[in-house]
Write a structure and sequence with these properties.
The complex is a heterodimer of chains A (about 140) and B (about 240). With about 140 residues, chain A is α+β, with helices and mostly antiparallel strands. Chain A has three helices and six strands. With about 240 residues, chain B is mostly helical. Chain B has a domain of about 140 residues. In chain B, helix 5 packs antiparallel against helix 7. The chains are: A alpha+beta (about 140), B mainly alpha (about 240).
């Protein structure tokens, strides 16, 4: 490799490393803005803005979903499976993939009493793809 | 072999048969994989029939990133060695990358509505893939905006290399940040989280899309070569003979 090519290669390497460094720093600086939702431990610890529209997410606690008499209102709990749990109250249609034991993301306002008033609920699908005949097996696995 | 294919004339002649076989193999494979995925795979436990969107979404999203990596490598090769074919490749692959990314985005939007409950959200994964689409678009637009071929090739190379930083961001966005998009189901050194009945047609479609896209890019490169070298004797000779 001659000098000119080596020099071009060094410039490129420098450009690439500089770009990577810039991007890494930018990502670290923006971390809290890039995260799509607040995890349960931050909601419980009170480090999220109260009465402001935010997104929070967690796993829907098994046996926590309670529908009210109108059929539209629903209350459930979101947890990180590490001891932090908060309750959500929501009025409206749930996505079809919303179910206990699966992830969900809620958009709405955290009230001062610690209840999250959601105006939108999104179901988070996990990376597992299971055929129907293995349903029972998988459910045993879950619990 | 390498030096022969680096010459436009030999590449143009040699790629002709390749295009034919790549198209044939790719289209056959895609037909088999898609029919398999659409009609012979059971609905998934939670997603139901929406799972079938995966057979377009995953190969398209994977190919989009691979095409970008290939363009960035070609950009580096062009800048360091001034290899003409590297620029021909970049010009041919950029629009294909844009189309593939668009397919991944559109199929993802269609999957998101029934699964998540929303068409689109601005999480780290979806946003970084949208940026990938704009990057491909930028590669095409930048080339057309600069009149002189040499300068356009240099500018496109620099943009391609600088934009390559987006690729690891796409890849790790689902691990570094909290996203609505799920983490990868297939990862080297980890158990595959997709059951085999769903997996086989996915691999068929993924491999076939690689083959098909390679064919499309080669065909594009041949067209580009005729355009670039229209004044040379080998092009006029080829037109006389065909």
């Amino acid at each position: 490799m001659n000098d000119l090519r080596r020099r071009r290669m060094l410039v490129l390497l420098f450009l690439f490393c500089g770009g990577s460094l810039t991007a890494t720093l930018a990502i670290f600086a923006l971390q809290s803005n890039i995260n799509h939702y607040y995890p349960p431990d931050e909601v419980v610890a009170g480090s999220v803005p109260i009465e402001h529209t935010i997104r929070a997410g967690g796993m829907v606690v098994i046996d926590s979903v309670v529908h009210d008499d109108t059929g539209l209102g629903v209350e459930f709990e979101l947890s990180d499976r590490k001891g932090s749990t908060f309750s959500v109250s929501y009025k409206g249609l749930l996505p079809s993939l919303f179910r206990e034991g699966q992830g969900a993301i809620v958009v709405g306002k955290l009230q001062s009493d610690g209840v999250f008033e959601a105006n939108q609920v999104m179901a988070k699908h996990d990376e597992n793809y299971v055929p129907p005949e293995l349903k029972e097996l998988h459910e045993i696995d879950d619990s | 072999m390498f030096h022969r294919m680096a010459s436009p004339e030999h590449f143009f002649a040699g790629a002709r048969l390749w295009v034919f076989w790549l198209y044939l193999l790719g289209v056959t494979g895609l037909a088999i994989g898609s029919a398999w995925g659409l009609f012979f795979v059971p609905p998934e436990k939670y997603q139901g029939d929406s799972v079938r969107i995966m057979y377009l979404h995953v190969p398209a999203a994977h190919l989009a990133q691979m095409i970008y990596i290939a363009i960035a490598v070609a950009g580096a090769i062009h800048i360091i060695w001034r290899l003409k074919m590297a620029d021909v490749f970049m010009a041919a692959a950029a629009p294909i990358g844009a189309i593939t990314t668009a397919l991944a985005l559109i199929s993802g939007i269609m999957w998101g509505r029934p699964t998540w409950g929303v068409w689109w959200i601005w999480d780290a994964r979806t946003t970084s893939v949208l940026i990938l689409f704009f990057l491909f678009f930028g590669l095409v637009a930048l080339r057309q905006a600069i009149g002189r071929r040499e300068r356009a090739a240099f500018a496109v190379s620099v943009l391609a290399i600088a934009g390559a930083i987006n690729i690891p961001i796409i890849k790790y966005s689902v691990e570094w940040f909290t996203t609505l998009h799920q983490p990868a189901s297939i990862e080297l050194g980890r158990n595959i989280a997709i059951d085999t009945v769903f997996l086989l047609p996915l691999f068929v479609n993924l491999a076939s899309l690689y083959v098909f896209v390679a064919g499309v890019i080669l065909a594009n490169m041949r067209v580009d070569l005729v355009n670039r070298y229209q004044t040379t004797s080998w092009v006029s000779e080829w037109f006389r003979n065909n």
